[in-house]
Specification:
The complex is a heterodimer of chains A (about 325) and B (about 625). With about 325 residues, chain A is of the alpha/beta class. Helices cover about 30% and strands about 20% of the residues of chain A. An eight-stranded mixed beta sheet of chain A has the order 2-1-3-4-6-5-11-7, with helices on both faces. In chain A, strands 8-9-10 form a three-stranded antiparallel beta sheet. Chain B contains 21 helices and 23 strands. The chains are: A alpha/beta (about 325), B alpha/beta (about 625). Chains A and B meet through strand 1, strand 2, helix 2, helix 4 and helix 10 of A and helix 2, strand 9, helix 10, helix 12 and helix 13 of B.
């Protein structure tokens, strides 16, 4: 099925004939474009790509991709994507989901798809609000935030998706903002290369119900000082001047400035996304200022689908039953003449 | 055995019902299945029914913890496990107390007298010793100190106390083997295999079995030994099969026949889990078993697998079907082939997990949001599970639509001889798939006869398309909110299911083809209804049975059958669901009903009594 040679596609080959119907200015447009740009790079034929989604604004996504697609029901997309991948492991399976779809109604399926390490890519559009139902708080909405369903402010503690992914034995977690088209495309390609459940949290802006929720991280004036984009093997340096960095102080991360208080570049932590021990990656995922983007964790591990295939092949090789007939006549039988 | 035959006159019986009952740790299910296997090999027809508590180990010695296994063997055709036992084996006082209602007066009760001490009968809820009270005076009671005799028989081989006590079920089995002139070799082979690596336990069980046999022989347990000659059955190769096992095999056969890989997405639930276990044990046919995180993931993964081209199924019981409802609607909207097996149990809610009922029919037909038609079919006996699982898979793939297969606890856990079929002898399956390189192809274009849309799997160039839960535009499958399109699609989906009626067999009547009373049933009550119908038939009464395997759609000749009888009685293990459905589909008839909602199957005697009353009462 899947060909190793990249077909001669451009991003336009992945645009379906359907009108895109998100609100004008919605962050989803940029994400759609970034995905369509990533597709020619990942080396799959169109017919071997499946986009699966649940319910929510983001979940309309499959209709806009000219690949195979399945817009399913609220929260269940990880299970559906699992079925697709197990039925045909040579397919490249992408799941599009939101903070409500993945972390509220679909929380169970989300953590179990991660735990099993099903080889799918999950794009989690996190806008910290319910858009399609018109403005209620979500499991990632900040404590105390006022919404239609929390007029006095929420009293819920929010989830940090990165913590949840790593806590569910996740092997790949990346975070990116919808304001960085090039970085998005790169991260998507990284995710597809990784074998196993790859989760990408996209900080996505809802212009209607939660506009500028990530402004403190994405606005041009503050972006460089408030975002740290990590790259495996590179020191964790950020800032307008390129002189801020992270180092460990005891068991805590701290932001330091190179050249101040005797801090040199050697003191800055070098990012290791491949470290099986997730302690430091978890700290990066939890960090609020600066917020960490890029591939935070990417650890190679066996996938469920490969194990399943291996087990079936092993049983087929060793079993005394070669076909169903062998089974049907097995055990104690008797003849009536 | 030869010795017994010489010593006593051996009487032939047409049929006998034996019930083994003890604590849920006493191994009664194993004892019962061993007696069943031995009798099957002797050529008897058989039906079995295990009756066990929902608790894995309820408090020892209490009525709540009693586990029973009833087996009915005959030289005549046997369709039910029997109303009442001819022989009850009661391993303790609680087992006796729990089964007094199910043993006919004058029949034989074998008692392990070691477990009838004061504390035993008090624990069972007796206020006086049942062995000395009037409780048992109408029965032939064999008091045997089974536990201590087992201990004596196996002492000296180095078994620990617990293992010694656990061998007592083999002693009891040996006794019953002797009483009914059964050979022990089947069980001996079984024990040798099971305890191949546990030498002492094997020796203990073998000794206990033989000791029980010899003991029954010595005490002349029954005034004469009995035997049940082989039944007159259709020629062929047979094996004893359980309902859930047959269901699993039916799907494995269907996958091979259709050239598809089988995908099972399932969450464990009583009494359906054995299907999951069985398929998990047969991955050598490429079967993919996904034990999901919950019922919803089980079906949703199956839908994903169906989309990607596998024969996809999910197995559950009533509470699980409730959870699967939304996803089943998605399969209806996306028109994908999946099979949902519901092994029904007593409800609502957790209800009676280990007891049988037919109360999920309305849920299967209507338990979803919106107009959401699916094919609904049902299994009628343990062996029939094979055929109906195969049929469910065939209908799903050929009509590209979800199918619900209703089984029940009684059928699923029961067993009977199955005339082995080969995969070659089964009907062919032709999934409705697109031909290669079709031009102007559309995702929701339909076969003119069946109205099925194409089942298209990813991986085929040129057929990229999107499906989903939003309403589909006719032919293109694009999202559509058009009011007239919605109405059209709702009617098309219904019509598609109704047209299945052209592809299923006609309803057949067993017994009289016209006359006084038509007994109507569906699913797992077949054996009881058939036996009762046959027994009620007499010179001045004409009675027939129309038993439904196909519920939605109904067979096309349903009304033709109904109008040939003066009265119709619909018999179900629920409060009247199929009858309600029939009143909607065929309101021109008047329906009487017999309903039982006790978590237990119909007994033949209660049915026969009511059939005769119905015929004889003034209409």
């Amino acid at each position: 099925m899947s060909d190793t040679t990249t077909a001669e596609y451009t991003f336009k080959d992945f645009q379906s004939d359907q009108d895109v119907r998100w609100c004008p200015g919605c962050g989803d447009y940029a994400i759609l474009r970034a995905i369509q740009k990533a597709m020619p790079e990942v080396g799959h034929k169109k017919e071997d790509i499946v986009f699966v989604s649940g319910i929510g604004c983001s979940s309309r996504f499959p209709y806009y991709m000219d690949t195979y697609g399945f817009h399913s029901i609220h929260g269940r997309a990880p299970a559906l994507a699992t079925g697709v991948k197990l039925a045909n492991p040579s397919l490249s399976v992408w799941q599009i989901t939101g903070d409500g779809d993945a972390l509220a109604i679909g929380g169970n399926h989300f953590i179990h798809a991660i735990r099993r390490n099903i080889d799918i890519n999950i794009l989690l559009f996190n806008n910290r609000i319910y858009g399609l139902t018109k403005g209620q708080f979500s499991p990632t909405t900040d404590l105390g935030f006022k919404t239609k369903s929390s007029p006095q402010g929420t009293i819920d503690n929010p989830f940090n998706p990165g913590e949840l992914v790593i806590g569910s034995s996740g092997h790949f977690f990346a975070r990116i903002t919808d304001k960085e088209p090039k970085a998005m495309t790169e991260v998507f390609i990284e995710a597809e290369k990784h074998r196993g459940a790859s989760i990408i949290e996209i900080m996505q802006n809802c212009v209607i119900f939660n506009d500028n929720v990530f402004g403190d991280y994405t606005d041009k004036e503050v972006k460089s000082d408030h975002q740290l984009h990590v790259v495996h093997g590179q020191p964790m340096i950020f800032g307008k001047e390129g002189n801020k960095g992270l180092r460990l102080n005891g068991f805590k991360l701290e932001v330091v400035t190179i050249g101040e208080n005797g801090v040199t570049e050697e003191d800055i932590l070098v990012h290791d996304a491949h470290d099986e021990d997730s302690t430091l990656q978890m700290m990066l995922a939890r960090l609020k200022m600066p917020i960490v983007t890029g591939v935070i964790r990417a650890v190679a591990a066996d996938t469920f689908n490969v194990r399943m295939k291996r087990q079936v092949e092993e049983v087929e090789r060793t079993s005394k039953f070669k076909n169903v007939n062998d089974l049907l006549v097995s055990g104690e039988t008797w003849e009536i003449t | 055995m030869g010795k017994t035959l010489e010593k006593h006159a051996v009487q032939e019986l047409d049929r006998v019902v034996i019930k083994f009952a003890g604590d849920s740790g006493d191994g009664m299910q194993l004892t019962g299945t061993q007696f069943t296997g031995t009798s099957a090999l002797l050529g008897n027809d058989i039906a079995t029914y295990p009756d066990y508590p929902a608790e894995i180990r309820a408090p020892q010695g209490t009525v709540a913890g009693v586990s029973g296994f009833q087996v009915h063997i005959g030289k005549t055709h046997i369709y039910t496990p029997g109303d009442n036992a001819d022989v009850l084996v009661a391993m303790n006082a609680a087992a006796l107390k729990a089964n007094m209602e199910s043993i006919t007066r004058g029949k034989t009760i074998i008692i392990d007298s070691d477990n009838f001490k004061r504390r035993d009968w008090e624990k069972a809820g007796y206020s006086e010793d049942p062995l000395t009270s009037d409780e048992l005076k109408h029965y032939h009671v064999i008091e045997a100190p089974i536990t201590s005799l087992t201990r004596t028989a196996v002492e000296g081989i180095g078994l620990d106390n617990k293992s010694i006590t656990r061998s007592k079920n083999m002693f009891a089995l040996g006794m019953v083997y002797c009483m009914f002139s059964r050979p022990m070799d089947y069980t001996e082979r079984f024990l040798k295999e099971k305890f191949a690596k546990k030498e002492f336990i094997l020796e203990g069980n073998m000794k206990a079995l033989k000791a029980g046999y010899n003991y029954a022989d010595t005490i002349e347990a029954l005034s004469s030994a009995f035997t049940i000659l082989p039944a007159d059955m259709e020629p062929g190769t047979y094996k004893n099969i359980m309902g859930n096992q047959a269901t699993a095999w039916g799907f494995l056969a269907a996958a091979e026949k259709a050239g598809k890989e089988l995908f099972l997405g399932s969450y464990p639930i009583t009494p359906a889990s054995d299907i999951l276990h069985e398929i998990a044990g047969h991955k050598h046919f490429g079967a993919k078993v996904f034990q999901a995180e919950d019922e919803i993931a089980g079906i949703t993964a199956a839908i994903g697998a169906a989309f990607a081209g596998d024969l996809a199924i999910t197995t559950t019981s009533g509470p699980g079907l409730a959870l699967k409802g939304e996803a089943l609607g998605l399969a209806v909207m996306t028109e994908l082939p999946i099979v949902v097996v519901d092994v029904q149990r007593g409800g609502p809610s957790t209800g009676l997990p280990t007891k049988t009922e037919q109360a999920d029919l309305m849920q299967a037909l209507y338990g979803r949001n919106g107009e959401s038609p699916v094919i609904v079919i049902a299994t009628t006996s343990p062996a029939n599970c094979f055929d109906m699982a195969f049929e469910a898979a065939k209908l799903a793939m050929e009509h590209v639509t979800p199918v619900i297969l209703l089984s029940d606890g009684y059928v699923a856990n029961g067993s009977q001889p199955w005339r082995i079929k080969t995969v070659d002898s089964l009907e062919s399956i032709s999934p409705h798939e697109p031909k290669p390189n079709m031009v102007n192809w559309q995702p929701y274009e339909r076969d003119s006869e069946s109205l099925a849309r194409y089942w298209i799997k990813p991986g085929i160039p040129g057929y990229e398309h999107r499906v989903g839960g939003l309403e589909k535009e006719d032919i293109t499958g694009n999202v559509s909110y058009d009011p007239h399109n919605h109405e059209k699609m709702v009617k098309l989906r219904e019509e598609k299911v109704q047209r299945v009626a052209h592809f299923i067999p006609d309803l057949e009547v067993e017994g009289e083809q016209e006359g006084d009373l038509l007994v109507v049933g569906w699913g797992g009550t077949y054996g009881s209804l058939l036996t009762a119908t046959k027994q009620s038939d007499a010179e001045h009464r004409s009675i027939g049975l129309a038993h439904f395997s196909y519920i939605k759609p109904l067979p096309r000749n349903t009304a033709d059958v109904f109008k040939r009888f003066k009265k119709i009685v619909v018999c179900e293990l629920n409060n009247g669901q199929f009858v309600k459905y029939l009143r909607g589909e065929h309101p021109e008839f008047r329906y009487e009903q017999i309903n039982k909602i006790q978590g237990q199957p119909f007994t033949v005697s209660e049915l026969t009594k009511k059939f005769v009353e119905l015929i004889e009462e003034e209409s």
